């Protein structure tokens, strides 16, 4: 399953956007309002839980400055990745799109598609104010 967020334009350079998203503690400012828990576990790992959902641990798996950051599931029963693709539009603006990818059975995919789509859309919608 692959889900893509809408692209969002930021008034920050690609490097500034990359630096912001590279610091996992900054993801707290991007989280939806229904966040139940957010905890930084390490310099490259954080845990979060949304109301009614299990806790999820994300770990930075890959970083290619200033264009790409890949977060992946750290433990748990589900293996997935969340990739931030950053494109420089000018020296002072950039564009970001989040891509969620994971292998799920049909039943699980049906159950999580809506909430995950809404989640990644919220993360990108919150970026202009946070970054």
Written description of the protein model:
This is SRPBCC family protein. The two termini are 28 Å apart. This protein is of the alpha+beta class and 131 residues long. The protein has a single domain, classed as START domain (Alpha-D-Glucose-1,6-Bisphosphate, Chain A, domain 4). The longest helix is centred in the C-terminal third of the chain and has 25 residues, at 106-130. A hairpin with a 5-residue loop joins strand 7 (80-88) and strand 8. It contains two helices and eight strands; from the N terminus they run E-E-H-E-E-E-E-E-E-H.
Using the alpha-carbon principal axes, give the shape: globular
CATH architecture annotation name:
2-Layer Sandwich
Class from helix and strand fractions? alpha+beta
**SS element count, helices:** 2
- As a percent range, the share of helical residues equals 25-40%
Mean pLDDT: 95
Distance between the termini: 28 Å
According to CATH, the homologous superfamily is: START domain
Largest sheet: 8 strands, antiparallel
Give the helices and strands as they follow along the chain: EEHEEEEEEH
Number of E-state strands: 8
- The CATH topology comes to Alpha-D-Glucose-1,6-Bisphosphate, Chain A, domain 4
